[in-house]
Specification:
Blueprint lengths: L10 H11 L6 E5 L3 H8 L3 H22 L3 E8 L7 H20 L1 H7 L1 E6 L7 H14 L5 E9 L1 H17 L10 H6 L11 E4 L18 E4 L9 H25 L8 H21 L7
Parallel strand pairs: 1-2, 1-5, 2-4, 3-4, 5-6
Length: 297
């Protein structure tokens, strides 16, 4: 199944989307795609079928975002906590993910045409080598695209991300590449998986749960959060537009809060800039190495 669909909205839905687009449109929308398993139970099908329906909704929602003019989308696809589920479900999810990333590689022309850059954020070391390689190949293939950014949080949780960011900072201090007085919020942000993304303007969670489940905890301190009661596979364009309209109603207060919090950009000194550039380069090299098949001993 293609990640990029032809437009599926009928004329009235598209007309309403155009009206919403005349207001404030969030630049970056994040989704907690919750409810796939409950959807499977509701429909009396296997849990992996619920996740397949959830993937179809991901592709549909990506198209709505592109039509609206949202240029960055982050999807919470698989939490590290999800590894605690049954082996059958986890294996099914890993196989589904491998199929979808391999399909994306086959869909290369469309992703290049639309200028979509795919980034997978998470602890990739927890994944099997073949899935890790497919993910790395997708990220390297699309890394120079800059019209739309699709971030997929996979094998992710925020505490894990923050832990690794702090480890990178400690490593820099230990090797005398940076000093302890260089440590700041900005430096830690530069060490996150999301270092090259703006913080989300809007976070949407489906399924009626009113929590954020250890998702982007560092990044959503001033994000508008919208909770929808519908299960993720049943999330419609009307639910999506309701969330956008909610954001637009909240926008003046969000702007005032942002202005109060904003003290202006904080530039790094040369020492910190050099360390951050080195860290990002190391991650790029590691990603490129993941694309290569394992050396047989």
């Amino acid at each position: 199944m293609s990640w990029i669909k032809e437009r599926t909205l009928h004329w009235f839905q598209f007309f309403c989307l155009k009206i919403i687009r005349t207001g404030y449109v969030p630049r970056h929308v994040a989704f907690i795609m919750d409810g796939n398993r409950r959807y499977a139970t509701k429909k009396n099908v296997a849990k992996v079928e619920g996740h397949k329906h959830g993937f179809r909704k991901l592709t549909e929602t990506l198209n709505w975002c592109m039509d609206l003019g949202v240029n960055e989308v982050t999807m919470y696809a698989f939490s590290i906590e999800n590894f605690k589920r049954s082996k059958e479900e986890v294996d099914g999810l890993m196989q589904l993910a491998k199929q979808k990333f391999e399909a994306l590689l086959e869909d290369k022309d469309k992703f290049m045409e639309y200028g979509i850059c795919v980034r997978v954020i998470g602890n990739l070391s927890l994944l099997a080598e073949d899935l890790r390689r497919a993910i790395a190949q997708v990220m390297v293939m699309t890394k120079d695209n800059n019209k739309v950014f699709l971030n997929i949080a996979f094998a992710y949780k925020s505490r894990d991300e923050i832990t690794y960011a702090i480890k990178d900072v400690v490593k820099g201090v230990k090797h005398n590449e940076i000093l302890s007085e260089d440590i700041s919020e900005d430096l830690i942000s530069e060490c996150m998986y999301t270092y090259n993304s703006p913080n989300p303007d809007l976070l949407i969670r489906t399924s009626g749960e009113t929590r954020v489940s250890d998702f982007l905890m560092w990044q959503i301190s001033d994000t508008c959060v919208y909770f929808s009661n519908v299960l993720w596979p049943e999330f419609s364009v009307w639910h999506f537009l309701s969330a956008i309209f909610y954001y637009q109603r909240c926008y003046p207060d969000l702007q005032r809060f942002a202005e109060m919090q904003n003290s202006g950009p904080v530039g790094h000194n040369n020492r910190v800039s050099t360390y951050v550039d080195k860290l990002h380069h190391e991650r790029e090299v590691m990603l490129e190495n993941m694309c290569l098949p394992a050396v047989q001993s």
